[in-house]
């Protein structure tokens, strides 16, 4: 089985923020998945439908987060960098979020 990674536009920003907040601030959160496709095994084809709620470990209010080192850079570098350091953020969950700095409206 293979699942390809896709970028998906956020259609409802408020619902996305609510779901992300639950994942970050809770010890456990529910992730719902729903979709349909056709599964292939050689020449055999079968319809596959998924409608499932899964309980996952959350980030528990970022417990365990620490800034281990930090150095101020003066003057700032050409690209604007003025702080460099090492931070530890334990992820107790199997979920990874990749985010960009802007939403598509």
Topology (elements, then pairings):
Blueprint: H1 13-25, E1 28-41, E2 44-57, E3 66-72, E4 83-88
Antiparallel strand pairs: 1-2, 3-4
Protein name: DNA, SC103
- Give the helix level as a range of percent: 10-25%
Structural class: mainly beta
**Which regions contain 5 or more consecutive residues with pLDDT less than 50?**
100-105
Helix segment count? Answer: 1
Task: Describe, in plain words, how this protein is organized in 3D.
- It is a single chain.
- This protein has 105 residues and is mainly beta.
- The protein has one domain.
- 12% of the residues lie in helices and 39% in strands.
- It contains 1 helix and 4 strands.
- It has one helix at 13-25, and strands spanning 28-41, 44-57, 66-72, 83-88.
- The strands form 2 sheets. A two-stranded antiparallel ribbon has the order 1-2. A two-stranded antiparallel ribbon has the order 3-4.
- The two termini are 33 Å apart.
- The model is unreliable at 100-105 (pLDDT under 50).
Summary of the model, kept short:
12% of the residues lie in helices and 39% in strands. The protein has 105 residues and is mainly β.
List the main descriptive attributes of the protein structure presented here.
mainly beta, two-stranded antiparallel ribbon, 12% helix, elongated
């Amino acid at each position: 089985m293979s699942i390809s990674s896709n970028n998906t536009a956020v259609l409802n920003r408020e619902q996305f923020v609510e779901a992300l907040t639950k994942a970050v601030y809770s010890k456990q959160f529910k992730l719902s998945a729903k979709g349909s496709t056709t599964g292939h095994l050689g020449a055999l084809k079968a319809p596959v439908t998924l409608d499932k709620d899964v309980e996952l470990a959350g980030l528990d209010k970022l417990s365990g987060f620490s800034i281990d080192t930090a150095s101020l850079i003066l003057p700032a570098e050409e690209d604007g960098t003025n702080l460099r350091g090492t931070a530890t953020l334990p992820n107790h969950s199997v979920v990874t979020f990749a985010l960009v700095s802007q939403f598509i409206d």
